[in-house]
Amino acid sequence: MVFGDAAELQAYQNLVSAFESRHPTIKVELLHIPGQAEYRQRLALDFAAGTAADVALLNYQRYVPFAAGDALEPLGPYLAQSRLIQESDFYPQALDAFRWRRQLLCLPQNISGLMVYYNKNLFEAAGWPYPADNWTRDEFLTTARALTRDMDSDGQIDQYGLGIEPSLPRLAPFIWQNNGSLLEGSVPRGLGLNQPQALQALQWLVDLQVKYHVVPDAMAEASESSESRFLNGRTAMFVNTRRGVPIYRNITAFDWDVTALPRHKVGRRANILYSDGYCLTAGAKNKAAAWAFIEFASSVEGQTIIATAGYVVPSLIAVADSSAFLDLATRPQNSRAFLGEIPYLRRAPLLPHWDEIEDIASDEIKSAFYGQVTVAEAVRTAEQQARDYFLR
Known about the structure:
- This protein folds into 2 domains: about 1-110 and about 275-345, Periplasmic binding protein-like II (D-Maltodextrin-Binding Protein, domain 2, 3-Layer(aba) Sandwich), CATH 3.40.190.10; about 115-270 and about 350-390, 3-Layer(aba) Sandwich (D-Maltodextrin-Binding Protein, domain 2).
- The protein contains 18 helices and 15 strands.
- The chain has helices spanning about 5-20, 35-50, 65-70, 75-80, 90-95, 120-125, 135-145, 170-175, 195-210, 220-225, 225-230, 245-250, 285-295, 300-305, 315-320, 335-340, 355-370, 375-390; strands at about 1-5, 30-35, 55-60, 70-75, 100, 105, 105-110, 115-120, 185, 190, 235-240, 255-260, 270, 275-280, 345.
- Strands 3, 4, 7 and 14 form a 4-stranded antiparallel beta sheet that branches. A 3-stranded antiparallel beta sheet has the order 11-8-12.
- About 45% of the residues are buried.
- The mean pLDDT is about 95.
């Protein structure tokens, strides 16, 4: 069972076909649910009913509740006996995200951080240099301001310099760049947003909208999303993971590329890990066949099939460093920038209720971002509402 859009579904169909040609005695039924929220709801219901798919694709931030309930089969012993793949083939940042209580529970399919997609035509029209992969937050803000423009002098912004989702995952890298933490205490007692490093990072994010107006306000965002504005050539930069690439490859009106997330002005770099993994459910009736599929999907051949669809950075080092991913004939030309961010990736906390905690924090970050509450009020509310989840 997998999630994703049409391009992702086609990639999985190609993967299943390739697997079945290699294993003609095994038949794979592909279950596809497009939306991630619907997918997680269906998965939870299936686990509760004992009808979960043998293999499920799970984001590392979402598998912990199932791991805590012993619903996933550890894959470490399977991997140790594989002649096709081994631990050293994968980026360790992706593997470590799927370790729960010292056991490897799933094999990572992909690895990505947040990146800045930019419209090359708008940069050229403004006479502004393309961003470098080692740029700073100050340079990032200066660029966003230079590319936010009232084109017809009517007092209304026609072109925004930036689009970014106001959420905890988007904020996290800037907290870490400040040497801050998402959590309070080494044994988490609550969110750490009230720490000075986190408050400074949140204020910096909020100021992009309330002070500098380089991103749309709440009304403008409601009328048209920042991603839609980027697609339509009216936003110069957009922060996203690799997942947007198949959509952006359909753009014909302008050229675009990608660069790294800006670093702190004193040189500290950090980014947030995004990774999905193939998980073997504990209730699978034929675990040998299910593992055979996971093993193939995680091999060079399997990951190459998925990589050609464009929406993932392969978790296998060999595939990520191959033409299957670094194809200069397709956009983005600077795909290597994704690999340059891997050493700086940090995972979100692996907590059973992190999904709920993240939603609470993101709601308050959004309220502050659009000027509906102050940063202090948003942090106080988030801390209070999330605290109960740390006591469970």
